[in-house]
Amino acid sequence: MTPTPQAATAPTGAFSAARTTATAARVLRQLRHDPRTIALMLLVPCLMLVLLRYVFDASPRTFDGIGASLLGIFPLITMFLVTSIATLRERTSGTLERLLALPLGKADLITGYGLAFGAVAVVQSALATGLSVWLLGLDVTGSAWLLLLVALLDALLGTALGLFVSAFAASEFQAVQFMPAVIFPQLLLCGLFTPRSDMHPVLEAVSDVLPMSYAVDGMNEVLHHTDMTAAFARDALIVAGCAVLVLCLGAATLRRRTA
């Protein structure tokens, strides 16, 4: 009696580093052939920071105060837009359904996307931070490496949010429509325009649970302190924890089809 051969692949539900890496490589190959998306992710944040610098040309100190915060906000916004649209395009084109029919788990897929867009986020954050500090003259008291760390965490958070909300959109237009609901309230309540302690108590309480608030707080810690502070470590950990949590939620809500 001939023995039944063992399955060559791991069960679909089991996490596989090889499948995750293959997914990330596939996404990066697709991005390489999409110069407009690359330009949006890498160049637009830099252009916005250049524009901001010369908007406050007569007041460099204002640029120092706002520029550090926006250095984290711009990458978050662009990564949110690109990731949500790219992931939804995979779903509506049927690519996602075909992938999930293979021995590819949801965790493999979401982590692979996170790795691919995370790699782009590293480049994006490095370009924006280097441009701001060494070419635009952004004056920060702390280390530029800490500034880069927060910018990178913000970009990863934007990636995670984009992956998450793409599960609830039926078209690319709907994915863009999530931006006012997900990004704009955080932008208004993060402390960029006024200290959060000066807001109405209800709004301050809401801002306390929004991850962008801690991104801005982390940037302000670098702006005003020479060394890494306990508050900075707390803010960075909260932003990183929110990114991981949202990625897990994205994996849990991932569907084969778009209704």
What would your notes on this structure say?
- By secondary structure, this protein is mainly alpha-helical.
- It is built from 12 helices and no strands.
Task: Report a brief summary of the structure.
This protein has helices at 17-32, 35-42, 44-55, 60-92, 95-100, 106-135, 144-165, 172-182, 184-189, 201-207, 211-224, 230-253. It has 12 helices and no strands.
Mean of pLDDT: 82
Tell me roughly what share of residues is in helical segments: over 70%
Number of strands: 0
Shape: globular
CA-atom Rg in angstroms: 20 Å
What labels describe this entry?
259 residues, mainly alpha
List the helices and strands and how they pair.
Elements (H helix, E strand, L loop, with lengths): L16 H16 L2 H8 L1 H12 L4 H33 L2 H6 L5 H30 L8 H22 L6 H11 L1 H6 L11 H7 L3 H14 L5 H24 L6
Helix pairs in contact: 1-6, 3-4, 3-6, 4-6, 4-7, 4-8, 4-11, 6-7, 6-12, 7-11, 7-12, 11-12
